[in-house]
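User: Is it possible to get a 3D structure for a protein together with its bound compound? The compound here is FE2/S2 (inorganic) cluster. I've pasted both below.
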Amino acid sequence: MKAGRLAAISFVLSMVASLALVAVYFVGESTPLEGTLLALALGGLGLGIVVWAKSLMSAPEVTEEHEALSSGPEARDRTKAMVQDDEVTRRTLLVRLVAGAGTTLAAALAIPALSLGPRPGQTLFGTKWTSGARLVDRNNDPIRPEDLPIEGVVTVFPEGFVGSSDSQTVLVRVAPDLLEPVEGRQDWSPQGCIGYSKICTHAGCPIGLYRAEAHQLLCPCHQSTFDVLQGAEPVFGPAARPLPQLPLDLDDDGYLVARSDYLEPVGPSFWNMTGGE
Amino acid sequence: MLKWLDERLGAGHWARKGLKKVFPDHWAFLLGEVALFCFVVLVATGVYLTLFFRPDATPVIYDGPYRALRGQEMSAAYESVLRLSFEVRAGLLMRQIHHWAALIFVASIVVHAMRVFFTGAFRKPREINWLVGVSLLIFAIGMGFTGYSLPDDLLSGTGLRIAYSVMLSIPFIGPYITFLVFGGEFPTEGIISRLFVMHVMLLPALVIGLITVHLGILWRQKHAQFRGPGRTEGNVVGKAFWPSQVFKSTGLMLLVAAVLAALGGLVQINGVWAYGPFDPTAVSGPAQPDWYVGWLEGGLRLFPAWEWTLFGVTIPSAFVPGVVIPGLVFTILALWPFIEQRITKDYEVHNLLDRPRDVPWRTAVGTAGFLYMGLLTIAGGNDVLALTFNIPVEGITWFLRVALLVVPVVGGMIAYRVCKELQVGGDHPLRRRRGTVLRRTTSGGFEEVH
Ligand code: FES
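Assistant: Yes, that's possible. Here is the predicted structure of the complex:
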């Protein structure tokens, strides 16, 4: 019988593959080989069984009747009558009280979930930047404007907080006469050095890319694009807010420092961001 | 043995009844089984992975065999994944099988749900099982996302950050629940262990429970079946559970596992070592999430930059595509049996399935929904498309924004027409040709082929 043969061959193949798999495990590793042998071991067994089932056991079609699922109105009424025991349903006051007690207990038991995290408070409104904080790069080196070529970009942090997620800032240097600063920010960009929060205002990804020819910062997550020359206004993509701008200045040694923290929350928007708590 | 059990559990009776249970013989009924078997593989490989993974954010310095990362600081979680991938024998195989199984698990659930939808198998009395199924889909996606976020690599960190921002965007409660879930402002140390508990304990427990309910209800209500000779609303025609169905299902389980093993061994997936450890100030270039969250990502990419502030309450631009639209999608999906019942006023029990053409308007709605989700998924890879075809991403985004409004409607209308035509013709479209066949001539015209 042909099908029987095929099934038998499959089972033998499976056995051989299983043994080889054991050998491979002890000899040394090779993921592709392991995967192939495991697939053969499983597949041989599976194929054999399917072939066997298909041809060796051609079971006849059978028919089964659906018995009615519903138990009918009478049985339902009887069940209802049983549930509505007078001793339970007549005591409305007790029923209400037991429901009330259950609810208060549930509330009390749910309260410890509040320990899972702090209240947001002011956390989302401020970063580690402070007035006079020097801008440093990832190696903790402070930066002078002349260290950065025109169209150069670097990720900076407040001194002492390298790697701080919410303070990460992109520092771009452009030719000063190209800049069209927003009202009131004319002196925030000494020698064309301009700093924006690196956290995308859409969903918080770090802005990864600077397109020098267009003077645009680009977020790789959903392609929001911000115009560096015009206060990082979004020009494309789902981000609706400009990147907050860090007010910059030079200290007495000529290093770049922050004049203050960001004046608005950085990162993705949230409902009370314009007010504060 | 049987006697022993029978005297204690009365096994003789119900075992025979169970073994005689009838299973309709049609390939479309195997889709749900594929999902079940993927889950079996997920549990088996997952337990193995759990024994090696450390859900721990403590920074360590890597000194393992993978040169490119030696000397780098990373979380203990990420290091344990590297160790599992490079030093544990068969570890990488297990990890890759696990990941492939997760992808195909969700895929087979989706295809199974489509089968149920287009054949009307969710109608009375099977509405409860539809709800259970939709919950299973949601939890499966949840398991996928939590699992994918565990290795603490750069790519998964990006996904988590977006999830954090979307959660934060919910008006009034966003910041509070986000801080409870994440334990503070992103990135937080504790998130890995929280995800771990979700991934290996809470979600699997829920899924196992729901699968049990799903199968229990199926067993009680019996299968629906396609129309055919001798088949009525009152019976099920097919093969008995034993031996034929048991053999077939066991064979199918082994074959599914075999395919997953081959994929896991031969097709690399989620090579986290190449992304590097998570760094909150960096992002990996064209980042692709697992396919089943692609539609969420696509929604975030396509939605325009609309952000409103009314009476001091800001509605962030991520809120509608990140929370409202997915919420609507799953609500409509879950309530579909009841929505349809409202429309058709059909409160009868149905054990015979529709062919998609039998109810053109449902097929049209389903097609439109499918196209909508499909386009969103494509949008989730718009940067990859841009790179592959060398078109500016802006163009693709605008094209997809328009397509999202047009294509589902047009597609639904076409599906409706096709159904109507098939009803007239009456033949299975794949089994018999109808009408005239046109051939494009070299001059650009058309001619009939006879
Ligand atoms: S996070 Fe930057 S565009 Fe979405």
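Chain A touches chain B through 74 residues (CB under 8 Å). Residues 21 and 27 of chain A are 10 Å apart (CA to CA).
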